[in-house]
Specification:
The chain has helices at 29-35, 39-42, 192-197, 209-212, 496-500, and strands spanning 7-9, 57-58, 83-84, 88-100, 108-113, 119-125, 129-136, 144-147, 168-173, 180-186, 201-207, 222-230, 257-258, 261-264, 267-268, 271-276, 278-285, 292-297, 302-307, 310-318, 320-323, 328-334, 343-348, 357-366, 390-401, 404-409, 428-435, 439-443, 448-453, 467-470, 475-481, 487-493, 504-509. It has 510 residues and is mainly β. It binds CU-O-CU linkage and copper (II) ion (2 copies). The site of CU-O-CU linkage has 10 residues, from strand 8 and strand 32. Residues 145, 147, 442, 444 line the site of one copper (II) ion.
């Protein structure tokens, strides 16, 4: 295992001297493997360079899988502030155990914000201070993070900022950021996977004047869809691999836990009745480890208008939308393209059998539609790599540490006592992320733009992201500017089992 944390200070226009990289931004798969010290293995005939690196595993249900498209799509409750003053809205979310019916006829114990899964949706406003008090009525500590939030460090949900049972914490969100589809979820060190699996996640939608001025579908035609996979025991409980199941039980799933039931807003393969009109679907992949490639069947266009960090510059018509854990895409589907009575499935092209299904729309009636998709949605500034003052490398690999296999960044496991990078406030940096197997990488605080992935520069206008999927043996270069707050934040893999097995790194904005 090589350990490298190179920091290059510009003005340095000399070609990169990292072995195996080419000048500029490109890196091939072979070069990426060489960088990881896997180059030799790659040349062995018939042998995968990554053989032995654990991949996500299906945890099979013992309960019979429910019939698809038998239950209506639930919409998460919208939270009401308990207090509002001139500058601030105050919310409280109480984390508590509850029993809910997910599979018809079975009771499933969950841990939810307000006892719900998903938790209540918070609808907030850009620039309006929002305070969320999280009260822990569970039997274990929790941490709540607002994913995509531009948040001061003391409210960001650093993985060791525990809220103990019986106590609460006020999270202050200034929301000096664009309209976007955010979400909140548990972030407790070493326990995020099981705590999110059991239900601790919900939507947090930020609106602003720019977005509101657009004629996009709204009201009941603006539908948040939290997509995740879960498995069920015969008694309705949701199993999750743990040490207590015996030696090696947790390690067997260190590549990630996949469920065999796809839930949308907490319901298995639900259906939604729609008008022949445009709908805005806010797609969120809240799964622990499953990646989706979503497409309409029998065919149709998903017009993407937004990404993790809000509106795109211009709409992007797509046949399929790929979402790794943590990623969001706002898309518009025009059901006027179908006839009354048609059934339109949202399918997962990466899933097999039942896991290829997600949700089914039933086109119910003709209706008036005043919405439109403007050709220009927003202005998105392009961050210029020539302005980057520092380039850093982060390698996401599995590795052995004190006799245990775990997930490492630059050869090291997460340690809350160690700071791995110190970007300066206001500084533009390029971070070069390299993978062994696939890793969805998420950066707190600072939204970023992708400069290149696998050596290819994305075409079209720039977009703001906070999570990016590194495919197997790939290098992705991102550019970001650290603004707003000084303090400690994390960079981590959003495969929650990887995250819990230490694939996380602290950076401190100074
Ligand atoms: Cu959605 Cu640091 O997490
Ligand atoms: Cu985050
Ligand atoms: Cu990972």
């Amino acid at each position: 295992m090589t350990i490298r944390a190179t920091t290059r200070t510009t003005p340095d226009t000399t070609p990169d001297t990292t072995p195996g990289t080419t000048p500029g931004m490109a890196m091939t798969r072979r070069q990426a493997l060489r960088l990881l010290g896997l180059g030799a293995a790659l040349s062995l005939p018939g042998c995968s360079a990554l053989a032995g690196t654990p991949l996500p595993q299906l945890l099979a249900s013992k309960a019979p899988l429910p019939a698809p498209y038998a239950v209506p799509l639930p919409l998460p409750a919208v939270a009401e502030p308990y207090r509002t003053d001139a500058g601030t809205d105050y919310y409280e979310l109480v984390q508590r155990p509850a029993e809910v019916e997910i599979l018809p006829g079975l009771r499933t114990p969950i841990r939810g914000y307000d006892g719900r899964f998903p938790g209540p949706t918070i609808r907030a406003r850009s620039g309006r201070r929002t305070v969320v008090r999280v009260t822990n009525r569970l039997d274990a500590p929790t941490v709540t993070h607002l994913h995509g939030g531009h948040t001061p460090p003391e409210s960001d949900g650093y993985p060791t900022d525990l809220v103990q049972p019986g106590t609460h914490r006020d999270h202050v969100y200034p929301l000096e950021q664009r309209a976007a589809t955010l979400w909140y979820h548990d972030h407790r060190m070493d326990h995020t996977g099981p705590q999110v699996w059991r239900g601790l996640a919900g939507f947090f939608l930020v609106g602003d004047d720019e977005e509101e001025a657009l004629p996009l579908p709204s009201g009941e035609r603006d539908v948040p869809l939290l997509i995740c996979d879960r498995s069920f025991n015969a008694d309705g409980t949701m199993p999750y691999p743990s040490r207590h199941d015996g030696p090696g039980a947790r390690e067997a799933f260190m590549g990630g836990v996949l469920g065999d039931v796809i839930l949308v807003n907490g319901a298995p393969w639900p259906w939604l009745g729609v008008d022949r009109a445009r709908y805005r679907l806010r797609l969120l992949n809240a799964s622990n480890a499953r990646t989706y490639e979503l497409a309409l069947s029998p065919g149709g266009v998903l017009t993407q208008i937004g990404s993790d960090g809000g509106l795109l510059a211009a709409p992007r018509p797509l046949r399929q939308v790929r979402l790794a854990p943590g990623e969001r895409a706002d898309v518009i589907v025009d059901f006027a393209a179908y006839r009354v009575g048609d059934r339109v499935e949202l399918r997962n092209l990466l899933g097999e059998g039942p896991q290829a299904r997600v949700l089914r729309f039933t086109v119910e009636r003709d209706a008036r539609d005043d919405s439109a998709i403007p050709a220009t949605l927003s202005r998105v500034e392009r961050l210029d790599p020539a302005k980057a003052e520092v380039t850093r490398d982060f390698e996401f690999t599995s590795g052995s540490l004190h006799g245990h296999t775990g997930w490492l960044i630059n050869g090291r496991p997460f340690d809350a006592a160690r700071v791995d990078a110190r970007p300066k406030l206001g500084q533009v940096e390029v971070w070069r992320l390299t993978s062994d197997v696939a890793h969805p990488v998420h950066l707190h605080l600072a939204p970023f733009q992708v400069l290149s992935a696998g050596g290819e520069r994305p075409g079209g206008p720039p977009e703001w992201k906070d999570t990016v999927e590194l495919r197997e043996a790939q290098t992705v270069e991102i550019i970001t500017r650290f603004t707003g707050y000084r303090g400690r934040y994390v960079l981590h893999c959003h495969n929650l089992e990887h995250e819990d097995m230490a694939m996380m790194s602290t950076f401190e904005v100074i």
